[in-house]
Amino acid sequence: xxxxxxxxxxxxVAATLVSQWSEVRDRIADxxxxxxxxxxxxxxxxxxxxxxxWEDTLGLLGHRPGRRRVIAWYYSGEIGKYVPGGVWPxxxxxxxxxxxxxxxxxxxxxxxxxxxxxxxxxLAVAAVLVPLxxxxxxxxxxxxxxxxLLPLGLAALHPAVLGRGRSVVVRIIGRGGDVPLPxxxxxxxxxxxxxxxxxxxxxxTWLVARALVxxxxxxxxxxxxxLSWAAGFAAVPVPAGAGIREAVFVASAGMAGGVAxxxxxxxxxxFVLVDAAGLVLTAHWHRASARNDVP
Length: 295
Hints:
By secondary structure, the chain is mostly helical. 78% of the residues lie in helices and 0% in strands. The protein has one domain (2-6, 45-289). The radius of gyration is 20 Å and the shape is globular.
């Protein structure tokens, strides 16, 4: 089902590109390489910031393995998001943390908690941007509806709610009673720390747009970026939200469809490049930490 949904959305994006290909072709031919290089730099900053903050999430659960080790685990495990089924990044990152000495009862929950806090930070950014651009948004009802998830998500991370959830898990599988419940204030602080990652993601996407058009809409691109990433994350069966993210961006970016589709695809490629480069550049950190863990 996830693959079918991805193909449908990719077909929509491809059809938009084809229908406006003459304009898109001219935009690509005139694209400024300098803006694209800056976009990749911002994409790298965003992904590394997310990896950096994962260590803070591990800290909420009582472990501080060290930033460098966690960044290496992050880039190695994140490759799993390109495999169908949203569980693979959690499994990959969690397993690497477990092998690095973090108990399984902390390693896997830390990944789930990091994803929850990351996307709540994205909704917080959107919550600021949507009112600033409300008069210009044809899709504002949908955007505002999505923002209702922010208070719901914050409430769901309260220790009282998490405690009930932990009790249910323990009753079902007989394990998990030793998973700590982080203080709500500390969890909210981690959400705030994730905010710069979304500013970098926003900047990377805007810079790609700036390479193609002289005056891309800053606020609309920020809103479209956060909403499209959230939609891609929610589409769990679809590998890395492929097609979903691009389709939502095209629908909400406030640019001509062909240009928006080009920006969406080019932005995706920038982040794929960063994921691959991060895996290669941090591989020796991962190997070094593995050697250090051998008795």
